[in-house]
Request: fold
Amino acid sequence: MTIVVNGTKREATDGTTIRSLLAESNLAPEKVAIELNRRLARSDKYDLPLIEGDEVEIVTFVGGG
Amino acid sequence: MPRIRSSFVSYNVPPMQDVFRIKDFQLTNRLFVGTGKYATYDLMQNALDASGCQVVTVAVRRERLIDSAGKSLLDYLDLNRYVILPNTAGCFTADDAIRVAMLGRDLLEKNGNKGAGWVKLEVLGDKKTLLPDPVGTIEATKELVKEGFTVLAYTSDDPRSAVRIKEAGAASVMPAGSPIGSGQGILNPLNVSLCLELLKEGDPSYPVIVDAGVGCASDVAIAMELGADGVLLNTGIAHAKDPVKMALAMKHALEAGRLSYQSGRIPKKRYATASSTFDGVISYIPGE
Reply:
């Protein structure tokens, strides 16, 4: 299936979850926040399988004023 | 040797105990310092430390998935020491600002930082001026208040916009001294003082923070002398030749400005008033 992660389209195997995406990129879940289809996804959603066309944003804090 | 009594030494309410509140946030330091634009994280940490600040601002951005080192700004901020104030910088619509605020809150909740309760709201008009969009700011303020946020809203120095944003539910209004990162200081002290007057009318403890445009320490002192409750700045420290020394200057300027405001300045007069009495002068005085 095709999903969009941080604005980039990519192929993902069935059963891919937010948690598995994070693990793949070596990201600790507590160091990021997640949006699924433009809505905040809290930690309890991280183990749900993603579906075709899902748009995931993985964000963190950077320097800012 | 004679003891010299200094009035400074007998000053018994150090500025550190000069508490102020923004809704549920009780703060003992009035300088809010940004974490952007430092050459290194090490420099940022030292500058934050020197500034004496209690609140630091951060931005929310896409994680760069290729960064295998996996280092995050969170690894360089002592979350037990600082209250993190996440901003919505880079947002040009109310909707996007709300999305970013929700993400920032989630991230701070995960890390157990008190900053999870508040947001520095920026809804900007365009990338060149970074001036705030008042309509978007008001829309986003209303929505974020419904979502339970303590909203600190960045705005221009326009007094009427400031009042409207307060009416929309902002816990603090933050008028800009001049455009973000411009270093032009307080361009319109009259407008800032009118913002303060209108926002605090019948509500003297309503917190007003001058945000943006601070270029040097005297700008901070001027903002505080006008009666601001605090100052938020980033570039003035981060891009100074010596950010740590400038951070210290900002800290002292904030204290000086605050003390000066509290002390009540003398009125400005057109003509001179002699400090040394003319009684008993032995000199010739023109016109007498």
